[in-house]
Amino acid sequence: YYSVKESVHLWTVYRPLDVTLAVAGTAENLYVLTSDTATTNWITNPSFEADVAGTSPPTSWVASGATLTVSAAQARDGTRSMLVNPDNLAVREGGYFSLGLYPGNRPISVSAYIRGFAAAGDARIEIRRGDTGALLVAGNTITLQAGNWNDRSIATLREDPTRPIVELRVFINTVTQHTNDFYVDSVQAETYNFISDYEDGSLGIERRWEGTAHSIISL
Prior knowledge:
219 residues, mainly beta, six-stranded antiparallel sheet, five-stranded antiparallel sheet, 2% helix
């Protein structure tokens, strides 16, 4: 049975806490509420933790003009990332994740963090149709450079009721033809007209996986 207070609330969530105090007998914050935008990440292996290092290609990813390998050399979230080694035979070499059939009356925003080895080459995120390969929207181009994971490529495909229900693919690939390797991590796809902070089910008490960790969508 619900209490009157619970029955009129939008929802009531209980969060069990199992925390060791930093200093016994001293008050401290155990839980902090945040105003982050609630979102669902539809990428099922977003930080490439579902595989051991050396796996090629990562789970749920398909190579396209490049070799994709799980790497433990660099990671923005977790302990692994995806290493992309372009074939250097054409432009737009990399790999993709399929979102499956997607209706045109819903928006989709995708993003990924990209890190290079040196100041050479480029990469970006894209959304393409699975049936024709047509480019629907391209994210901002990231100039590859070594150093950190501050560079995030972002693309938003806005709702269009005239667009048929087709397979959508999230591509991460080169923009120009080159042979410069790069790392990809923290990939996200969400049904908004904007991008929120990256999330997966491992990032704190407010996050969860909808099943097996790193192999299913996260909220």
